[in-house]
Specification:
The structure holds 3 protein chains of 3 kinds. Chain A is 28% helix and 15% strand. Chain A contains 5 helices and 6 strands; from the N terminus they run βββαβββαααα. A 5-stranded mixed beta sheet of chain A has the order 3-2-6-4-5, with helices on both faces. In chain A, α2 (105-112) crosses α5. The model of chain A is unreliable at 1-13 (pLDDT under 50). By secondary structure, chain B is of the alpha+beta class. In chain B, the strands form 3 sheets. Chain B has a 5-stranded antiparallel beta sheet. In chain B, β2, α2 and β3 form a beta-alpha-beta unit. Chain C has 3 domains: 25-133 and 194-274, Aldehyde oxidase/xanthine dehydrogenase, a/b hammerhead (Aldehyde Oxidoreductase, domain 3); 142-187 and 283-445 and 597-742, Aldehyde Oxidoreductase, domain 4 (2-Layer Sandwich); 447-590, 2-Layer Sandwich (Aldehyde Oxidoreductase, domain 4). In chain C, strands 3-5-1-11-8-9-10 form a 7-stranded mixed beta sheet, with helices on both faces. The chains are: A alpha+beta, B alpha+beta, C alpha+beta. Chain B: Pfam families: CO_deh_flav_C (PF03450), FAD_binding_5 (PF00941). Chain B: Keywords: FAD, Flavoprotein. Chain B: One of its GO terms (molecular function) is oxidoreductase activity.
């Protein structure tokens, strides 16, 4: 049987590259000027162009939460937005969370509670937890569990992640 | 992902013009589904028109006593908005049952209406799919169709067969609420009844909605009646959170003196669009909540349902979910 | 100074992980680095007739497109492609020829100046195939099952033991019998970090490779043999691994492709896989198992039969220990175990957390639960009735086995005593509540390993071994062992791993790393200690001039006389005598085979689970679980607890959610992403508790430790399934227990 099953191609797509443009990104309080084509995602801009590799790529499709960053204080999946779309925003990554001397309280709590194993989902978990606290919707342990469900942890550190966040939020263990 | 150009208009007119003058252009708002599909090579717009600068993010009262949800208000801002929570808690519940906190912070109300199916075959460009590649066939029909539709499917003609479902939770609530979609396009403004917004696959499974080329959703209007007292959204899925619905049910009831005076039931995860049958809902009106047997209502809603093997369980599951949802909405069962 | 071993020390690599400074394979950069994008086969079997690369090559920024047609000549023999975890057979060679062996096979690598250009160019490549009929369904091919071929890997994985007694006769005579067929789908490891290799092309043509692997030396060996390069020209570095769970035990194809491109183009190259491509190599194989138990009225299990058929690829015979566990757990005199394979048109399966153990033990433990139900006996009582102090397969006593204590303490913590044995006896509205338990077991092994210990001129202890830390806590426990061995404050001890230049250690897997590398760290530090002691003896006015090695001990970074704590010399002072140079020792630790062979060595657990099942919807939620583990000496309760909790989460995920579903029309996994391949999310996990019972073992290894990486998962799936049975009265023998199976 002769078949032609090929990667999706379309005749109307002439093989040419998109125009690069000047893009200004404010990340962790620092303004970065980049020349990027519009097809660069915020995640790839951070990792491949700015070498801010603390933000992780775990699926590139909004299905794992490893790429979570804060945009104007709100947590988002940086893999599903284009860098060019975030020109006017304040972006905070894991590299920008710690205070001058020392760690963010959530970072300290994650270490203390062993709220990770391999560490790959960890920056996304922590940024997500910061976003969770900013949102102010979580009142109970079950709220934390539900509202942190956008961050997969394949090592299965969930109970410790919840312990760490709960402690920083002053929520009782059995609430 | 293919090569594309980028535009960021600051007013609606320019945005609409952008699409009118560029064939193959698409609007982008939250980007949560479009960029996902572009990386999968399922979508390939040659130009993205970023509409995030348009002033469409407000949530405000309408003159008719309803609520207007700006197309660019995020799902999160909508679900947590005090007017939505107090007057349309069903909508709030449905939105919060979907996706993750991160995605809800990005996804917009307008974009949610255009979420495309989660059908595996639609996503995998190496398999046939009439929705993605018209005429290529339907891989799901005789394949792995556990998440697929049981109602309103198109399965007769191999070249148009499609058993995909609509994946949104928000839209199931909007369907129950009789929302109205406001659009602006090259021909001006118009409104579309929510029931008419999404369509069944029919002979053109590649079309998800009835929106015309170049039209932009600007708002979703909620009528005054929001069922704030008697409502529920039940979502059944393979894990506790962050999973698409196998079956979901949105119910809104009005009850006066133990009698149902209005009823809405919308189903998700079972068809190419949120599934409603107003004539079946009407059978509930006038019934006493404590004496009504909801099972025949569930039966009637699932009339004509057809399983394709892996998804046949959905028929029974949907019936049970409808009964439970009606009981819950009527406060015969705890909301949980 | 109190010892660090046994203390809940926070991870020494913790700050690096919470600040984003820990760097993984795709996070290293080199000047002018190129990006590779893999194109995967659309068909499951057949051959490529043509690859149209012209359009891609015309795209500005595309540097090269590699296919089987233009790849360089490489090693000819299978043996060159064999890695340390290769099963018997002929290893897969990417871009070898036009033959398609499985759907998702890497067939082309597009290399470009940026990630985005490579990704786009890949969409411009068209592939023509000639398709052959494929066979991918295990259940339709059971008639083709045959015995696995044996090879080097069989040394670690014993084939099923010979039958003992007369199973058929004993089973027939047994007044109480259970028989069940157990099936489960393929599962994929899906570590959070996708496989990636960053190959840095050095000026002299040497390669520095940042690879995602569970063993840097394994990747080094593979690259050097396949590409005919001296070991000294290939350095593999892997300090952080974003989860692996077995998937990093073999070099994955992105390593081959990145090295090939870097060598051909003489430039640095990074190749990362997509999440979809994470479903295009090794996986936990599907199995079909039959388990039969026969018992007398008092609960004595007389007869056990366990047969399993697993899948493998057409080119390698992957096999695992699925059916042997019954002989290790229960002393039945009449047993029969068989294990066979069906080759299919898929990639070769690959060890995945507790390979075989979490496949076979759950089937066995569900039938034991069924037997208890039929006997009207408490499931723990039945297990105690059939308790064994010997591994009946080897006919050897266990070096230690505190499973009885696991049952006792686990039951107490869980509140098992108040369980009503009747199924469907606990209900809250529509919610049925069930309690289930099961036993877990995994091997406690030790291998050979090397480590180097260095006392720096600043008085810091630096220890290295080419092992890995895939999240298991290797960095931390090795630091603790080193600190205790030489009496150093833990802040002054640095342990490094994940570099092929370091002393050799085996791939990190099988729960053997704590024992294996821990022993090496201990002997290396001891050797360094002896060297330092000798140096101290030679110092002017040495208090140790007449002392023997046995007379001294190490504490607070000093060597001290046991008899006189004031007779002490600081380690800093000793190294100061070395002419401005550090003092180092490298040592090898070997298991004491002569002693160990007299014993069976295993880690045990008892898992207790509560589920809530919605009677109408079939939705299952694990509301709480307790696992009691007999794992020898616990080096660090904090990281140890994380290991067990992680295993429990995996067990819940496996029992209720995980399956890679293949459409046999296409021979292709269809739910190949993290939205549709469900793993447990935070909301799936409620209260989990872990107990480590006291267990002293002087045989298993000098540290008395047993690995904890796998034991946490082994007991869980059956405990969940047994709890579902208790809740609903339905015995679901097909995992995962999705809601449709309970409707």
């Amino acid at each position: 049987m002769q078949t032609t099953l090929s990667p999706e191609t379309r005749a109307d797509l002439a093989p040419s590259l998109p125009q690069k443009q000047a893009i200004k990104l404010t990340i962790n309080g620092t303004v970065h000027h980049l020349e990027l084509a519009p097809w660069t995602t915020l995640l790839d801009a951070l990792r491949e162009y700015l070498h801010l590799t603390g933000t992780k790529k775990g699926c590139d499709h909004g299905q794992c939460g490893a790429c979570t960053v804060l945009v104007d204080g709100k947590r988002i999946n940086s893999c599903l937005t284009l860098a060019v779309m975030k020109e006017d925003s304040d972006i905070t990554t894991i590299e920008g969370l710690a205070a001058e001397n020392g760690l963010h309280p959530l970072q300290t709590a994650f270490v203390e509670h062993d709220a990770y194993q391999c560490g790959y989902c960890t920056p996304g978990q922590i940024c997500s937890a910061v976003g969770l606290m900013n949102e102010g919707q979580a009142k109970t342990i079950d709220d934390i569990r539900e509202l942190m469900s956008g961050n997969l942890c394949r090592c299965g550190a969930y109970p410790h992640i919840v312990d760490a966040i709960r402690e920083v939020m002053h929520i009782e263990p059995k609430s | 992902m293919n090569s594309f150009s980028y535009a960021r208009p600051s007013d609606i007119g320019t945005a609409v013009d952008e699409l009118a003058t560029h064939e193959g252009a698409k609007f982008i708002a939250g980007g949560t589904n479009l960029l996902d599909l572009m990386k999968e090579n399922v979508e390939h717009p040659n130009r993205l028109v970023d509409i995030n600068r348009l002033a469409l993010s407000t949530i405000e009262d309408t003159e008719e006593g309803g609520l207007r949800l700006g197309a660019l208000a995020t799902n999160a801002d909508t679900a947590y908005h005090s007017a939505v929570q107090s007057r349309y808690p069903l909508l709030s519940q449905a939105i919060l049952a979907g996706a993750s906190a991160q995605l809800r912070n990005m996804a917009t109300n307008g974009g949610n209406l255009f979420q495309r199916t989660r059908c595996y075959y639609f996503y995998d460009t190496q398999t046939p799919c009439n929705k993605r590649e018209p005429g290529s066939g339907c891989g799901a029909l005789n394949g792995f169709n556990r998440i697929h539709a049981i109602l309103g499917t198109s399965d007769q003609n191999p070249e148009t067969a499609c058993i995909a479902t609509h994946p949104s939770d928000m839209c199931v609530a909007l369907a129950a609420l009789d929302a109205v979609v406001r659009v602006t396009g090259p021909m001006g403004e118009r409104t579309i009844r929510f029931a008419d917004f999404h369509r069944l696959p029919g002979h053109e499974p590649w079309l998800d909605t009835t929106i015309q080329p170049g039209e932009l959703v600007t708002a979703i209007d909620l009528p005054a009646k929001g069922f704030p007292e008697y409502f529920t959204y039940i979502k059944l899925r393979d894990r506790q959170s962050y999973a698409f619905a196998l079956v979901s049910v949105a119910v809104g009831l009005e009850i006066d003196n133990n009698r149902i005076t209005d009823a809405r039931i919308a189903l998700g995860g079972v068809a190419h669009k949120p599934w409603r049958k107003p004539e079946v809902e009407a059978r509930l009106v006038g019934q006493s909540i404590s004496e009504t047997d909801f099972a025949p209502i569930a039966e009637a809603l699932l009339e004509g349902a057809k399983g394709y093997g892996h998804n046949t369980f959905k028929i029974e599951l949907a019936k049970r979910a409808i009964v439970r949802a009606l009981q819950r909405a009527a406060k015969l069962e705890p909301q949980v | 100074m109190t010892p660090y071993i046994g203390k809940s020390i926070s991870r020494v690599d913790g700050v690096a992980k919470v600040t984003g400074k820990a760097k993984y394979a795709a996070e290293y950069f080199a000047p002018d680095m190129l990006y590779g994008w893999v194109i995967s086969s659309a068909i499951a079997k057949g051959k490529i007739t043509r690859i149209h690369t012209e359009a891609a090559l015309q795209l500005p920024g595309v540097v090269q497109v590699f296919t089987h047609e233009n790849r360089p000549s490489l090693a000819w023999f299978d043996v060159n492609y064999k890695d340390q975890d290769a099963p018997p057979g002929s290893p897969f060679r990417p871009l070898r020829d036009a033959t398609i062996l499985y759907s998702g096979q890497p067939i082309t690598l597009v290399v470009a100046e940026t990630l985005e250009v490579a990704r786009f160019a890949a969409t411009l490549v068209q592939v023509d195939y000639e398709e052959d009929d494929h066979e991918t369904a295990l259940e339709h091919n059971l008639h083709r099952a045959r015995e696995p071929k044996s090879g080097v890997a069989s040394l670690l994985k014993s084939p099923p033991p010979k039958p003992r007694g007369d199973f058929e006769k004993a089973f027939e005579a047994a007044p109480f019998q259970t028989t069940g067929q157990h099936i489960h789908s393929v599962e994929h490891h899906n570590p959070m970090e996708m496989f990636a290799s960053t190959v840095v092309y050095e000026k002299d043509g040497k390669l520095t490779i940042y690879d995602k692997t569970q063993g840097a030396p394994n990747s080094q060996m593979y690259v050097s043999q396949v590409f005919n390069m001296p070991f000294s020209d290939v350095r593999v570095i892997s300090p952080y691994v974003g989860g692996a769970f077995g998937s990093g035990l073999r070099p994955q194809y992105q390593l081959f492709l990145a090295v090939l491109a870097a060598r051909e183009l003489k430039r640095s190259v990074r190749v990362s896989l997509t999440r979809q491509q994470m479903f295009t190599f090794g996986h936990r194989p599907a199995t079909v198992q039959n388990v039969s138990l026969g018992a007398t009225a008092d609960g004595t299990i007389d007869a056990i039969r366990h047969d399993a058929i697993g899948e493998t690829s057409r080119f390698e015979d992957y096999f695992e220990i699925v059916v042997n566990w019954a002989g290790m757990l229960y002393p039945a005199p009449h047993v029969k175990f068989t294990y066979n394979l069906v080759p299919l048109d898929t990639f070769t399966p690959l060890d995945m957390r507790a390979p075989g153990g979490v496949t076979g033990v759950p089937a066995l433990e569900m039938e034991v639960d069924e037997l208890a139900h039929k006997l009207g006996m408490d499931p723990i009582e039945l297990r105690l009735k059939n308790y064994t102090e010997r591994d009946m397969n080897e006919d050897l006593p266990y070096s230690s086995k505190e499973l009885r204590e696991c049952f006792r303490q686990g039951a107490e913590r869980f509140g098992w005593a108040s369980r009503n044995p009747e199924p469907r006896s606990m209900r809250n509205g529509h919610t049925l509540v069930g309690w289930g338990m099961a036993t877990g077991i995994w091997d406690a092994t030790q291998g050979p390993a090397r480590a180097e210990a260095v006392l720096t001129v600043n008085g810091k202890l630096r220890v290295t071994s080419a092992t890995a830390d895939i999240g298991t806590g290797t960095y931390t426990i090795m630091t603790q062992i080193a600190a205790d061995t030489l009496g150093m404050p833990i802040e002054d001890v640095i342990f490094r791993l994940g570099d092929s230049n370091m002393p050799l250690a085996p791939i990190e897997g099988g729960s053997w790393t704590a024992a294996t590398v821990g022993s090496a760290v201990k002997v290396a530090c001891e050797a360094l200690g002896k060297k330092l002691f000798k140096m101290a003896q030679k110092m002017k006015d040495s208090p140790f001039a007449d002392a023997k090695w046995e007379d001294v001990w190490f504490s607070d970074a000093h060597i001290l006389l046991k008899t006189n704590p004031y007779a002490a010399v600081s380690l800093l002072e000793i190294v100061g005598q070395n002419g401005g140079r550090a003092v180092s020792e490298t040592a090898t630790s070997l298991p004491n085979m002569l002693e160990q062979r007299k014993y069976a060595r295993a880690v045990h657990s008892a898992a207790f689970v509560e589920v809530e099942v919605d009677e109408d919807f079939g939705t299952v939620r694990v509301t709480r679980a307790v696992t009691a583990v007999a794992g020898g000496r616990i080096l660090n309760p904090k990281t140890a607890r994380s290991q067990i909790i992680g295993g429990m989460v995996w067990g819940i995920s496996k029992a209720l959610e995980e399956e890679s579903v293949m459409d046999h029309q296409f021979g292709r996994f269809m739910n190949h992403n993290l939205a549709e391949y469900h793993v447990a999310v935070n909301a799936d996990i409620q209260d989990l508790d872990v107990i480590f019972v006291d267990e002293t073992d002087t045989i298993v290894n000098p540290l008395g430790v047993k690995g904890l990486g796998e034991i946490g998962i082994v007991g869980m799936p059956a405990a969940v399934a047994n709890a579902v049975f208790h809740a609903t009265g339905k015995r679901i023998r097909s995992l995962p227990i999705t809601l449709d199976k309970l409707l």
